[in-house]
Design a protein that fits this description.
It is a single chain. By secondary structure, the protein is an alpha+beta fold. It has nine helices and 13 strands. It has a six-stranded mixed β-sheet with strand order 1-3-2-6-5-4, with helices on one face. Strand 2 (75-79) and strand 3 form a beta hairpin.
């Protein structure tokens, strides 16, 4: 079994050589036939010219007994109807008639070849006993044997070698930057992905490949940095409740007479609840960051907010929802965003929370506003970072995971929207913006579901 070359250079050179071989074979055969026909036809024309001249002389009665040779046409004879030689060139005098060929009266000129010599017979007149002029020469050297084919084959092999070498060199020059890219990529490891490849000059495919690879490495570097920060922050956030839980249990074990067991169990359950909340939120965040798709559906955002916003709690929640504000996405995830925002507002509000839903151009806008202390402008982006909890939030709810707003923003972004903390006359104001749809017919529902 023939092994197919693994190298792109070898495969390219082989492919180019095979195509060139096919083309050269076709051109070679065509050229051989054309050259043979042309050379032979020219040689026959030369012999026919000589025979025609002495045929005219025979009709005029001026042909000599010894006919002068004409270059390569050295055998010339005038033969009568009985095959007797009446006149001949010096080389043909001692020979019998060169051929028994006698052209008919309606076709006075005929050609014959035996593969070695070319013969032309011309009947002098149309009379029944008219003599015939025979002229003969050797076949041209180019047509003897396979000299022409040998010459064409040698030329084709030389061209084939040039094509293979040129293809190899061209592909080699093209792949040289790719080899440099491969060597550079081999130096990049998970522990150090800060290395980048030098972009070659120009805007060809290789330069575009290098730019794309560098951009991919930038994104990968940022993702790895985020994962490291996430792992460090997660370990820190998990370590605190675990350490507290361990301390309480060890204290209850070492000093059983001084510790209230019921209080220890309640504290342990509180720590376990915090751990459970953190782990659950981490799982949700991991699924969102991994891009796991949720089943899409059409949601009337106004109706969803009216149904899901809690009406009873520490402070009242007032809902102002416009009807027929349609969005496409995961109902469960949108409910989670709403619950996170409303619960966060209830935790920080002094007297009330306002939730509104409206359509603004091509967007559906959900606004959650409380009348609490608000968020300083410098902290409005920081609150969306994972495990970030401001002092007021820790004071009001020590058991939160610090992931609710981060999860809510990820859900908004996965739906093609945004979630921001914006200016408010009093308290905090969170604004969720999602792409809005018109009231769609059933077929559009199916189309949107297929796309998402």
């Amino acid at each position: 079994m023939i092994a197919y070359p693994r190298s792109i250079r070898a495969r390219s050179a082989l492919a180019a050589s095979l195509l060139a071989l096919i083309a050269l074979a076709v051109v070679g055969v065509t050229s051989s036939l054309a050259i043979r026909y042309r050379v032979q036809d020219d040689a026959f024309n030369r012999v026919e010219q000589v025979a025609s001249r002495w045929s005219a002389a025979a009709r005029a009665g001026t042909i000599p007994v010894v006919i002068p040779a004409s270059g390569d046409v050295d055998l010339i004879q005038l033969v009568d109807a009985r095959g007797r030689v009446l006149a001949a060139s010096h080389s043909a005098r001692a020979r019998p008639a060169l051929s028994t060929l006698r052209p008919p009266a309606d076709d006075r000129v005929q050609r014959r070849t035996d593969g070695r010599r070319l013969l032309v017979a011309i009947r002098i007149t149309t009379a029944a006993d008219a003599p015939v002029v025979l002229a003969e020469r050797r076949e041209p050297a180019l047509l003897r044997g396979h000299n022409l084919e040998y010459a064409l084959t040698a030329a084709a092999l030389a061209l084939l070698a040039i094509v293979a070498w040129t293809s190899w060199r061209t592909v080699d020059r093209t792949l040289r930057p790719v080899e440099a890219i491969r060597a550079r990529l081999a130096e990049i490891t998970v522990s150090d992905i800060s290395l980048r490849m030098a972009v070659p000059p120009g805007d060809d495919e290789v330069a575009m490949l290098v730019r794309t690879a560098n951009q991919t490495l930038d994104r990968l570097d940022e993702a790895v940095a985020q994962q490291r920060r996430f792992a460090a922050t997660t370990s820190h956030e998990l370590r605190n409740p675990i350490a507290g839980l361990r301390l309480q249990l060890e204290e209850a074990l070492l000093h059983p007479g001084e510790v209230d067991p019921h209080e220890t169990i309640r504290s342990a359950l509180s720590a376990a609840d915090r751990l459970d909340a953190i782990v659950s939120d981490l799982l949700v965040l991991a699924r969102l960051r991994a891009g796991d798709p949720a089943p899409p559906e059409l949601v009337d955002l106004g109706r969803l907010v009216s149904q899901e916003a809690p009406r009873a709690g520490r402070v009242p929640v007032r809902v102002h929802a416009a009807p027929e504000v349609w969005v496409c996405g995961s109902r469960i995830q949108l409910v989670r965003v709403l619950a996170n925002l409303v619960n966060n507002a209830i935790r920080h509000a002094d007297s009330a929370v306002d939730v509104s839903v409206a359509a603004s151009g091509g967007q559906a806008v959900v606004t959650v506003t409380d009348d609490g202390a608000g968020i300083a402008p410098a902290d409005r982006e920081r609150v969306f970072e994972r495990f970030t909890r401001l002092d007021d939030g820790r004071r009001r709810d020590a058991g939160g995971s610090g992931l609710g707003l981060a999860i809510s923003r990820d859900i908004a972004q996965s739906h093609g929207g945004t979630l921001k903390a914006e200016d408010s006359p009093r308290g905090a104001r969170f604004v969720l913006r999602l792409p809005r749809l018109d009231s769609p017919p059933a077929e559009r529902v199916e189309r949107l579901s297929a796309v998402i």
